[in-house]
Specification:
The complex is a heterotrimer of chains A (397), B (348) and C (694). Chain A is mainly alpha-helical. Chain A has 17 helices and two strands. In chain A, helix 5 packs antiparallel against helix 6, helix 9 packs parallel to helix 12 and helix 15 packs antiparallel against helix 17. In chain B, helix 5 packs antiparallel against helix 6, helix 5 packs across helix 12 and helix 5 packs parallel to helix 13. Chain B is elongated. Classes of the chains: A mainly alpha (397), B mainly alpha (348), C alpha/beta (694).
Chain lengths: 397, 348, 694
């Protein structure tokens, strides 16, 4: 068979992505129809920049999602076909069997794997780690930043010192120190995970208790229910049969996180939370001078109610914007880790690892490195544009 | 002012102590030491042999005492080993142990020696730092003026076509980490298949003799990422200042637009980005590591990767100390500069 | 050219200005005409959002990207400003027309020395050399009566106090001796006594330089004191225009009349002659009614006449240049006395519920705020020996300017801070050192607070109903959600808000409505003592009366003790039973309202009374202008706190004022004063405010 022309490649890639297009169109039609009733999210559709950003982000979300469901990929992203090594985009596979896609749409890499499928699977790796890691970083940052800003004084001095300590660490050095097999063997990442991942629990407990402590009949069952579910998830996450932290027996452990992924996760949360802490602290110091905070204090509200229900909801604008930016930053960090071959397994399809693999032969074969490079670029660009759109819209009236 | 700097320096030293301790702790964990013993001794050592190798060289002390020795505030160990040989931390190879100094740590200028490069750590760090210094100098020369210009131009008329297009450029460069922009730049300007081949894809020759051809791509790669960020900060700050009341006052005083920007807006608008530029350093260090690896430029970042990748503990410690100090000193400069730029903070 | 031209300096003719948003065109000013003659001062009065500042910016041709002049013309010395090129405009701005703004701090460049900012003006417009410009700056700074002009020229804006900054802004406007000065609420951000001095200065300088002025303000009293003519604006239109005497004494528009009836003038009394609030709300710019904008709120509204077509300005026959925008002005009997609302029973003060005994609150602060914690601390005496008692259903007003310690006092009472010394007795129970977290629910719900800033008093991300219900929850009222919801709706009834407001977000409410919610929240736990911290000072005049009345009414029903913190003596005189005057943490005078408002005064009370502008042409005031600014509480003067500004100081022998804090002395029954002046001197004092016999 002849190799495909560029037009054919584009057409076939588009066709392969059909589920993504359908989902995108549906999402946009529904959102634009109801935009006046959707609050800040709806307002996003008033800004061109925001819409472009949102479309880019959702493109990759859907690609990752449908890719994981097997709707998009053409080949197994780990399977190697020797004859396809470093082949240019659109090369047909020689002697293809029945039922296997006959082309490497975006070419093959140096081991003869399909670049297109690896790109799609790489999107899924990012989608799994980046948003969740950012959520955890926010939990840590918020839970510590609120009291630091609200109380000030020694607590603030201490916590700020710690945050500055981490911030003064060159990120790459930290990764090189934390994300090594030797460190994983000592169990330090597991202990850190045990510590960092407890924050969502603390956050949820304090949030609900401060709100409902006047109504014990509602509070107690609610707390038991929520903390029970979160607690189990937490234990499943941190506890690993055969690792240093082994609390849950194997049968109760809901899911396993490979230790390589866990350490990546922990490091990313660890380097992101100080920045979130600083933002939350600053916002808190600003908002705590408002009269409604004084009003809450004069009716005898506890400090945590004031922090979580009076201050935090009113700081949400800047935090949402930062959340988008931070997912982008986390994506870049993940790529950096992959680029240096830290944490993620060497055959992982994530974009950073793929770029690193591809760059060795970059002067001769461009596509294995360029495809993931542009993927990462477009996702992060989308997140930045989305954040910009949100910022612009939230500032308006 | 003096008191303020003193306080900052004190906090800085405390931070440096904490950070170096963390690095020391992490690099001196048992699995690392085990690896060290095997690579320095021989790979077929039994666990007992590893233990005695380590304890003969003082590695099994508790971490605080080891840290104190490394720092040079505690006397270096003198151990009569299980193999009968007496070793002292401070002994100079080839000279009797008895003549060894009591203290020999970082404070005494004794940074140990690199196991990978077989040279004293201080020499290696100094040499690579000089190379990176050259790189950073050009990065700053390219990055700062262009970023500020971009930001000021975009921010002085918010919402205009200039603003829109410049902002898009800035956002795109912030969304492009060095390993992406580097790859793209090499593909476009240096590759043999499709590229223009204007520049070289490696900067190895730039260590000796940097010229436009072999040095421009690495410099541009680092500069691009930081540039977008600074430009956006400058733009935001400039746009905010341009809507301030005192700018209206100036306008209604009859000051021309050019003079409003130059005399009234600029100084106020540059306060925020100045801090940002300084705080960019830890970030730039990131870029340096990536770019030096990508372009095979044997500077500080490259050394860091080598040290970490080869479990070269002493070298890694040395690199960490230097990078932590670089970051802290830039923070100090940023604080002082902020006070200087912002007359509202009076230091008396 | 100024020599040959002798027409009006500024002539605005049928001006219309609109702002354009993505959704619609919002007319901000419609069919607005006014003329300013040489040497004349014209006031522009109206509530916030009526378009008065837009007019000023229109004159400056500085409406921003969205604003545009859509009709009419603005002529300056006969030349159309709208037709000028950008260059010509720049020549006029700053040299011929200068502007003074509301917030002095924001309108000075923080990173530029004062001298530079001043010198810029002559250097641009006259091409002066540095030396000439500097000399001119020095002279003008001396003219605005700033001490040590050389030092001031060499300092940055943040190193000056608010009053000094405003003087610099005035100086900057006068640098080029403009023919027209536009003042946009120039004293709103200042304290009353400082305001009085600044107003005095503007008046004097206006005369000295022969400048015409356009004075924008929401305060009728201030306009009376500064202007020759005025123009009343309502919702984008001029509704009445004329000389001060004509408009104040022979008003010809229902809005002007309603405005005057809603402000507390001397003679108003909360029981016998209550204020009359203007019903309804200010219309939003895109929801203006047909015909007369004021129609829906007007007492004289007549369907079919007032709500059809545009209503033009009509000349009032017999008066000079007096016009009104009312179709019925010749039919209305303007002299008819205000229909008296049912006079109300005066609430009799009951037993003592709150007693302060020698309360002191000191703060320790780092001497250097930024780089502190290096040992040195300073003690700030925020409250110095406060003693008073408050009875059931009594209103005690606490009067003072910034830094007088009234907010600190409120904090200590509420339990947000604990007292340094002395006692606070609530029902004879000491609470001065119980912080709020240790107080029982009853104590907390007994003492509640209404805050100053309506835009800040409600949590923006919670519905109005939720916020009130949360207060009920905390106070342990109601045993189910339903019970609390019912009680919440009753509270909304109490503050006269529709029940539908329960599900609204605070941003959907107007300032006055928010303040009502704040009051409802304060009364959620049947508070017995309510601290109202300037509850109406941030509201528009027409809404103030309604909110004040509401507070009075609830107080009457619930026998609440009201501690009313305010700097506005007019409103204090109107509603309080007793008055406490504070200055730099000291209570300088305490007595019944009549005692405090009549001589003998404490010298500070005297100055304060004289400083408050009164919008009544029949009132004569003694003119007392205090020198300088209020000293900082961080660095109080020695001896009597008021000695640096007191005009009676030389009547006390032996420099006692500078060395010793005067003791509290009792003049008449319950009338206390903290002053060294002898009884004989005190007896010499004249009344500051005299109402001319009608």
């Amino acid at each position: 068979m002849d190799p495909l022309s560029w037009g054919e490649i584009i057409a076939r890639v588009m066709a392969q992505l059909t589920p993504v297009w359908i989902a995108l169109v549906l999402l946009f039609v529904v959102s634009i129809l109801f935009k006046r009733r959707l609050g800040l999210y709806g307002k996003l559709f008033d800004s061109m920049i925001g819409m472009i950003g949102f479309a880019l982000v959702m493109f990759w979300v859907f690609t990752g999602l449908f890719g994981a469901m097997g709707l998009i990929v053409t080949h197994d992203s780990l399977a190697q076909i020797a004859s396809m090594k470093n082949k240019v985009p659109g090369t047909a596979i020689l002697g293809v069997e029945e039922g296997i896609y006959p082309y490497y749409l975006l070419g093959g890499d140096n081991l003869g794997r399909d670049v297109f499928s690896r790109m799609v699977d790489g999107a899924w790796v990012v989608m799994q780690i980046a948003p969740l890691a950012t959520v955890f970083a926010f939990m840590v940052g918020i839970t510590l930043g609120l009291p630091a800003g609200y109380y000030g004084g020694r607590l603030d001095t201490g916590l700020s010192f710690l945050a500055n300590l981490i911030l003064a660490f060159p990120v790459i050095l930290l990764f090189y120190l934390l994300v090594t097999p030797e460190i994983i063997a000592t169990g330090i990442p597991n202990y850190m995970a045990t510590f960092l991942f407890i924050f969502p629990l603390v956050f949820a407990a304090v949030l609900l208790n401060s709100r409902y402590h006047t109504r014990p009949s509602l509070r107690t069952p609610l707390l038991i229910g929520v903390l029970g579910v979160l607690g189990w998830l937490y234990l499943s996450l941190v506890s690993e049969v055969g690792s240093k932290v082994h609390i849950l027996p194997g049968f109760a452990d809901l899911f396993d996180v490979p230790s390589g992924i866990l350490v990546v996760f922990v490091s990313v949360v660890f380097v992101n939370s100080p920045t979130v802490f600083r933002i939350v602290r600053g916002l808190t110091m600003d908002i705590k001078t408002r009269d409604y905070v004084a009003a809450a204090a004069t009716r005898g509200e506890g400090p945590w109610y004031i922090m979580l229900w009076e201050i935090l909801p009113n700081a949400r604008g800047p935090l949402i914007v930062d959340f988008c930016l931070r997912i982008g930053y986390t994506t870049i960090l993940l790529g950096t880790l992959g680029f240096f071959g830290l944490g993620l397994p060497p055959e992982s399809p994530d974009w950073g690892t793929t770029i690193n693999d591809g760059r060795r032969l970059l002067r001769i074969y461009l596509h294995p490195a360029l495809v993931p490079a542009f993927s990462l670029l477009s996702l992060v660009l989308g997140l930045n544009l989305l954040a910009d759109g949100l910022r612009e819209e939230s500032l308006r009236d | 002012m003096g008191l303020f700097i003193l306080r900052r320096v004190w906090v800085m030293l405390l931070t440096a102590l904490c950070l170096t301790f963390i690095v020391f702790f992490l690099t001196n964990l048992y699995p690392n030491l085990e690896k060290l013993a095997k690579s320095e001794g021989n790979f077929r050592m039994t666990d007992e042999q590893v233990d005695s190798w380590l304890s003969n060289r003082g590695y099994t002390d508790n971490v605080f005492s080891k840290y104190g020795q490394w720092l040079g505030v505690l006397p270096g160990y003198v151990i009569e080993g299980s193999d009968g040989e007496t070793r002292a931390r401070c002994a100079i190879p080839g000279e009797p142990v008895e003549d060894a100094a009591t203290f020999c740590g970082v404070l005494q200028g004794n940074w140990g020696s690199s196991t990978v490069f077989k040279v004293p750590v201080l020499d290696k760090v100094g040499e690579s730092l000089a190379l990176t210094g050259k790189l950073m100098f050009w990065v700053l020369v390219v990055m700062v003026p262009s970023a500020l210009l971009l930001g000021v131009l975009a921010g002085m008329r918010e919402g205009s076509a200039t603003d829109r297009s410049l902002s898009t450029i800035a956002i795109t460069t912030t969304a492009t980490p060095e390993y992406v922009s580097g790859v793209i730049l090499i593909a476009v300007f240096a590759s043999s298949t499709a590229g223009l081949q204007w520049f070289k894809a490696t900067a190895a020759s730039a260590m000796e003799d940097a010229n436009f051809e072999n040095f421009f791509l690495p410099v541009l790669t680092i500069a691009l990422y930081g540039m977008g960020y600074i430009a956006r900060m400058t733009r935001a700050s400039m746009a905010e200042v341009m809507t301030a009341q005192y700018i209206r006052t100036a306008r209604l005083k009859g000051v021309s637009f050019g003079n409003i920007v130059m005399k009234h807006a600029l100084r106020n608008a540059l306060i925020a980005p100045f801090t940002v530029i300084m705080l960019q350093f830890p970030w730039l260090l990131n870029g340096v590591v990536i770019v030096e690896t990508l372009f095979n430029y044997k500077g500080f970042g490259w050394t860091l990767v080598q040290a970490a990748g080869n479990n070269d503990i002493e070298l890694l410690l040395g690199v960490s100390v230097v990078s932590v100090f670089v970051v802290l000193i830039t923070q100090l400069i940023s604080d002082i500069g902020y006070v200087y730029l912002n007359p509202r903070i009076s230091v008396s | 050219m100024a020599d040959t031209y002798d027409g009006p300096i500024l002539e605005i003719d049928r001006l219309s200005i609109s702002f354009f948003t993505r959704l619609r065109e919002i007319p901000a000013v419609m069919d607005f005409s006014v003329a300013v003659q040489p040497g004349e001062a014209v006031g522009l009065v109206g509530e916030s959002g009526c378009g008065k500042s837009t007019v000023a910016l229109g004159v400056m041709q500085d409406l921003g990207k969205n604003g545009r002049i859509v009709g009419g013309s603005i002529k300056f010395k006969g030349r159309d400003l709208g037709a000028m090129s950008a260059d010509e405009l720049r020549q006029i701005r700053g040299s011929e027309i200068a502007m003074i703004y509301q917030e002095p701090m924001a309108s000075l460049n923080p990173a530029m020395k004062i001298g530079r900012q001043l010198m810029e003006v002559p250097m641009i417009h006259r091409g002066s050399s540095e030396k000439e410009a500097y000399d001119r700056a020095l002279q003008v700074v001396t003219d605005v009566k700033l001490p040590d002009p050389k030092r001031i020229l060499d300092s940055y804006p943040h190193q000056l106090s608010g009053g000094q900054q405003q003087r610099i802004v005035i100086a900057m406007a006068l640098m080029a001796e403009p023919s027209l000065l536009i003042l946009d609420e120039p004293t709103t951000a200042l304290d009353v006594t400082v305001e009085a001095a600044v107003v005095e200065l503007v008046k004097d300088l206006g005369k000295k330089y022969g400048t015409s002025m356009l004075f924008i303000s929401h305060n009728l009293g201030l306009v009376l004191e500064t202007c020759d003519r005025l123009c009343v604006m309502y919702s984008g239109e001029a509704v009445e225009r004329g000389s001060i005497a004509d408009v104040f004494d022979e008003m010809q528009h229902p809005y002007t009349q309603a405005l005057f009836r809603s402000i507390p003038l001397p003679g108003a009394d909360k029981n016998a002659r209550p204020l009359r609030a203007i019903p309804g709300n200010f219309p939003l710019p895109h929801e203006r009614p047909q015909g007369c904008n004021f129609g829906p709120r007007c007492d004289y509204f007549e369907a079919g006449r007032c709500d059809v077509g545009d209503i033009p300005m009509a000349q009032v026959p017999g008066n000079d240049r007096h016009a009104t925008r009312c179709v019925k002005f010749q039919e209305i009997d303007w002299k008819a006395p205000m229909a008296l609302e049912a006079t109300k029973e005066k609430g009799e003060p009951g037993k003592v519920v709150l007693r302060m005994d020698n309360l002191k609150k000191y703060y320790e602060v780092a001497a250097n705020a930024l780089f502190g914690s290096s040992g040195e601390t300073k003690v700030v005496k925020a409250n110095e020996t406060l003693s008073f008692e408050a009875r059931e259903s009594e209103t005690l007003a606490i009067v003072g300017e910034s830094g007088c310690g009234k907010s600190t006092f409120a904090k200590v009472l509420m339990g947000l801070e604990t007292a340094t010394e002395g006692e606070i007795l609530l029902d004879n129970k000491p609470i001065q050192s119980t912080a709020i977290e240790d107080r029982d629910t009853k104590t907390i719900s007994d003492i509640q607070m209404v805050f100053q800033n309506p835009f800040d008093t409600l949590n923006p991300s919670m519905t109005v109903g939720r916020q009130i219900m949360r207060a009920l929850e905390i106070f342990g009222i109601g045993d189910s959600e339903d019970a609390r919801r019912k009680r919440m709706l009753e509270l909304l009834d109490l503050v006269k808000l529709p029940r539908a407001f329960a599900d609204r977000m605070p941003r959907q409410l107007s300032g006055g409505q928010k303040q009502r919610v704040g009051i409802a929240r304060a009364f959620a736990g049947d508070a017995r003592i309510v601290v109202a911290d300037e509850p109406v000072s941030a509201l528009d005049v027409s809404v103030q009366a309604a909110v004040t009345d509401l507070l009075m009414e609830i107080q009457r029903e619930h026998k609440t003790t009201l501690l009313f913190i305010s700097h506005d003596l007019s409103i204090v005189r109107y509603l309080s039973d007793r008055v406490m005057v504070m200055y730099l943490g000291h209570v300088v005078e305490l007595g019944t309202t009549d005692q405090v408002f009549a001589p003998p005064y404490h010298p500070y009370t005297e100055a304060l009374l004289s400083a408050v502008p009164i919008a009544d042409t029949s009132v004569e005031k003694t003119h007392i202008v205090l020198e300088g600014d209020i000293p900082s509480a961080m660095n109080p003067p020695s001896g009597c706190p008021f000695q640096t500004r007191c005009r009676w100081k030389d009547r006390v022998p032996g420099g006692l004022c500078e060395s010793e804090v005067p003791a509290q002395k009792t003049l008449a029954d319950g009338h206390q004063i903290k002053c060294h002046l002898s009884d004989a001197v005190l007896a010499e004092m004249d009344a500051v405010i005299k109402v001319a016999a009608e």
